Amino acid sequence: MPLRNTIFIVDERPLSRHAVWRRLAGPGRSFRLFGDARSALGALETERPALVVADLELPDMDGVALLAEVRRRRPETSTVLLAGTETPAGARTALRDRVIDALVGRPVEMLGGVVRELLHEPWGDGLPLAG
Q1: Distance, C-alpha 68 to centroid of its chain
Q2: Is the full-model pTM beyond 0.85?
Q3: Any idea which of 62-66, 81-85, 127-131 has the lowest mean pLDDT?
């Protein structure tokens, strides 16, 4: 069973990793940040993250291939692919074929809400629901 609060962030650019971490940081969540797919896959041998967020372009493997491998090894782990403003057809196909759970374009304003949904966390915004 995955640890509900552990999130892997995989992006070769330190500033991007930090920006994603800052957007997702919150109570009850822990993070592991990786600069390449190989390191993240190595950690997957002993850890069971609830979520893996990966950039499309990584130095040693593209993000779709990484998240497909995460899905193969840890099918219970949710996956989010981060892509630029121009999303390649392969990323859209991966979403359609359920290789990934979500595709978020940059800038990543929507990422927090997508992650909250994938982790089944309450919104906690205090607003009443229409009904």
Answers
A1: 12
A2: no
A3: 127-131
